[in-house]
Amino acid sequence: MDHLDPSALTRLLTAVVGADRVRLPNDREAFAARVIIEPANPQEIGEVVRKCESDALALAPMGASRTLSQVRRQPAEVGVSLARMDNIVDYEPDDMTVVAEAGVTLGVLNARTALHSQRLPCDPANPELTTLGALVGAAKSGPFRLSEGGVRDLLIGIRFVGHDGRLIHGGGRVVKNVAGYDLMKVMTGSFGTLGIITETVFKVRPLPENYSLAITSFDHVADALAAARRAEEAATLSHLEVLSPSFGDKFARPGRSVVFAGFGGSRTEASYYRAHLSNALKRNTQMLAGDDAIANYQQLRDLDFAGAAIAAQLAVLPADLPQCLSACGAEFRAHAASGVAQIILPPDRTNDEISDAVGRWREIAHEAHGHLRVLEARSDVRANLDMFDQPPDPAMRLMRRLKLAFDPKNIFNPGCFAGGI
After folding, report:
1. DSSP string computed for 283-343
2. How open is the CA angle 25-30-31, to the nearest 5 degrees?
3. Are 79 and 59 in contact (CB under 8 A)?
4. What mean pLDDT is reported for the chain?
5. In which order are the strands placed within the sheet that holds 167-171?
6. Under DSSP, is residue 191 helix (H, G, I), strand (E, B) or coil?
7. Domain count of the chain?
8. What percentage of the chain exceeds 70 in pLDDT?
């Protein structure tokens, strides 16, 4: 079908779910989809999928559109908002599992589990804005990935709507469930290209005891990264980050590279780690506990790259990260012990400079047998960038076969993954 104007699309979709649940996008959503539809259950999503397949309309699942608006080169015809599917279906504190619809935000989920001193320890920026569908679809994570793992490690069950509007499920509600294909790992990080996630099952974990945060800073990035290595050797850490000097002023250390080492455990363990970290980090180390530690951790987690010309995520072996960061020559937040860093360019760079930087960063990542993905980019350059890295040919062939099997009509967020999938 040729592209329909928004009013024609609205009339077409109103026949599926009703006029009160079809609307035009807001400013951010407009980068992701031309018309927004808000189904209330998986069955309605199935009807939307069948309509889009029959009329050859591209659709994209949406939470708050913070990720999708940055990675789509052109908006899809239909954005499927999960805003009305925001129920916590089942929570078993004794079993440490929780079942929730994809429109539930991580902030709401953790407010519920905190009543039982538990949490889902995935910690992307701004959890109050991050839906569980987006958490899984974009494989979001944060500082605590070092000690708690990522979405793939915590997701034990999933339901999604796929080709022909069928409701598909994998895994279950118990931790030791080995039946069937591991659809959880297939759907994690698929960016909505295989189906629309409707429900998730996670294992949760206890809230950390005696969380504390060691902070110190250095004039030179190399000294900060070396200190981070010493900290990793000195203690069992919850997380370990290094910021380049441009971010130092956000933590009252302007022009300095800042190291953050989070730790916890029993009082005895926390005291032991505190002493060893003080010795490893040496000078000017600030030790925070309680609300002060949590506030600084949250500020680190929610570090905002808005306004940057481009932000990308570099992933290499931890031992190779310092050399790669030096070669990239960009400002960064590094999850030093995980081998992951977000790197940025300031807003005054030209489109050619941005494109050249991404190409150079990718070469640096590939030389270290790693990869690089663009997280967000200025709108005037986005259409000319490859947001995702290009996997090796054998992996790419497998991905294309998987896409064809799950989405033979090519309607699920097309062109929004590696290799243009």
Report:
1. TT-EEEEHHHHHHHHHHHHT---TT-SEEEEEE--GGGHHHHHHHHT-EEEEETTTTEEEE
2. 155
3. yes
4. 94
5. 88-92, 97-101, 196-203, 155-161, 167-171
6. coil
7. 4
8. 98
In this predicted model, what pLDDT tens digit does every residue of 202-259 receive, in sequence order?
A: 999 999 999 999 999 999 999 999 999 999 999 999 999 999 999 999 999 999 999 9
Cβ atoms < 10 Å from Cβ of 108: 16
Task: Find residue 331's DSSP bridge partners.
Answer: 344
Beta bridge partners of residue 90, listed in sequence order: 99
CA angle 359, 361, 366 (to 5 degrees): 95
* Residue type, position 119, single letter: R
276 burial via Cβ count (<10 Å: 0-12, 13-18, 19+): middle
Please say if the pLDDT value at position 2 is more than 60. no
pLDDT at 173 exceeding the cut of 80: no
- Residue 295 belongs to some domain of the structure: yes
Same domain, 283 and 330: no
* Rounded CA separation 171/158 (Å): 6
Copy the structure tokens of residue 123: 């910690």
Contact 4, 12 (CB under 8 A): yes
- Is the CB of residue 124 less than 8 Å from the CB of residue 106? yes
pTM: 0.94
- Intra-chain end-to-end CA distance of the chain, in Å: 20
Percent of the chain's residues with pLDDT above 90: 85
pLDDT at position 179:
57
Mean predicted confidence (pLDDT) in 108-126: 97
Q: What is the DSSP letter of 241?
A: E
Residue 370: both structure tokens together = 């790693």
CA 114 from chain center: how many Å? 22
Range of the domain at 294: 212-301
Q: Of 46, 47, 44, 49, nearest to 60 (Cα)?
A: 49
Q: Which residue has the tokens 């999928």?
A: 49
| Whether residues 277 and 316 fall in one domain | no
Sheet holding 371-377, edge to edge: 286-289, 212-218, 257-263, 239-243, 331-335, 340-345, 310-315, 371-377
CATH of the domain at 18: 3.30.43.10
Angle in degrees, CA 411, 416, 421, rounded to 5 = 70
* pLDDT score for 413: 97
Q: What is the pLDDT of residues 67-115, one digit of tens each?
A: 888 888 889 999 999 999 999 999 999 999 999 999 999 999 999 999 9
Residue of 322, 312, 323 whose CA lies nearest to 361: 312
Domain final position from 243, 268, 301: 301
Residue 135: what pLDDT? 97
